[in-house]
Design goal:
Pfam families: BURP (PF03181). This is BURP domain-containing protein. Keywords: Signal. The longest helix has 14 residues. Helices cover about 30% and strands about 20% of the residues. It contains 13 helices and eleven strands. The N and C termini lie far apart (about 50 Å). It has one domain. It has about 325 residues and is α+β, with helices and mostly antiparallel strands. The N terminus is likely disordered.
């Protein structure tokens, strides 16, 4: 597709906290959150990704796209969990296949100590348990390595499908065949692939669409959004569970949203069955403290027998419940009650 006019508009802006708060009152994305979730605090993981674009600027950029002009967001780093150069490598995503573990062989487990400590058994989810956690799980990206959510009107004006990837790349001024283009294609394939039998899935290309998916799936606008938020200055250290302020009942079906690599913020969200969730207070050996969100899978009978968790924990499909923490930067939605 050829364009007679080329306009490069840099949507990616390094935004300091003061500038972010100054513009937030006119952000269409932030307004949508407050309108639809008036009693739900915005978790830091999502607040940090809200675009500083005002209603007026959003309309200007939308007009530019409709006129066939290009809008560029720079080149995200496809090896980064959060999109741009400088973010931590996605060891979680690398091994996950959207279920936090795949058929990685023993050599992979031995080579990567993070993966060997990622899982734990439900029987260990109690106060006093000591767990080794790695910075890969706990760190979010720095401000200059993030991509923002696009306001929904902008996101919907850019094709989000593998058969129209070339059109999206053209509009976003991203080179065909670049690492970024390849990473975007992989994300699209994951989003378009079939869902597992135990889940409903959805790829949110804007925070507004994530809100709509969560509220429609959970059947209420009275929601809690939980995130892991633990200060981490070391590559790894032992943390002690000091309290469990909240634990859901068996049979809950929360929505979990995982960050994906794309030219702008995209989250892979899915409703999981047969799991329990818990908010866990943690204290590190260095004296730091924070909260983690633990997810326990109560029924693993349908999992691949070669799943990484079985190898690490020495359990079998359908055996003891398998737990893990939701990585920092990802969120879990559940009814407030």
């Amino acid at each position: 597709m050829m364009f007679s006019t080329v306009l490069v508009v840099l949507l990616y802006v390094v935004v300091g906290s003061e500038a972010m708060h100054a513009k937030s009152s006119t952000s269409p994305t932030l307004s949508y959150w407050h309108l639809n979730l008036p009693t739900t605090p915005i978790p830091d993981a999502l607040r940090e990704l809200i675009s500083p674009l005002s209603y007026e600027k959003t309309s200007e950029l939308l007009d530019a796209i409709r006129e066939g002009k290009k809008v560029s967001m720079g080149e995200p780093d496809p090896t980064s969990k959060f999109g741009r150069k400088g973010g931590p490598d996605s060891l979680v995503i690398k091994a996950s296949n959207r279920n936090y573990g795949s058929s990685a062989d023993d050599a992979d487990i031995i080579a990567d100590p993070f993966l060997s400590t990622f899982y734990f058994l439900e029987k260990d989810l109690h106060t006093g348990t000591k767990l080794t956690l790695y910075s890969t799980l706990l760190k979010r990206s720095s401000p200059d390595s993030r991509v923002f959510f696009l306001p929904r009107r902008l996101a919907e004006a850019i094709p989000f499908s593998s058969d129209k990837l070339s059109v999206a790349l053209e509009k976003l001024d991203i080179s065909q065949g670049s690492d970024t283009a390849l990473a975007m294609n992989q994300t699209l394939k994951r989003c378009e692939g079939p869902a597992n039998s135990w889940e409903r899935k959805y790829c949110a290309t804007s925070l507004e669409s994530m809100i709509d998916y969560a509220t429609s799936t959970l059947g209420t606008s009275s929601l809690n959004v939980l995130e892991t938020n633990v200060p981490c200055k070391l590559e790894s250290q032992k943390y002690t569970i000091t309290a469990i302020p909240f634990q859901s009942k068996s049979g809950s079906k929360p929505v979990v949203c995982h960050s994906e690599t794309y030219a702008y913020a995209v989250y892979y969200c899915h409703e999981s069955q047969h799991i329990t969730t818990a908010r866990v207070s943690l204290k590190g050996e260095d004296g730091s403290s924070g909260e983690g969100v633990a997810v326990c899978h109560m029924d693993t009978s349908g999992w691949n027998p070669q799943h990484l968790a079985f190898k690490v924990l020495n359990v079998k499909p359908g055996g003891a419940p398998v737990c893990h923490f939701v990585p920092n930067g990802e969120v879990l939605w559940l009814p407030a009650h």
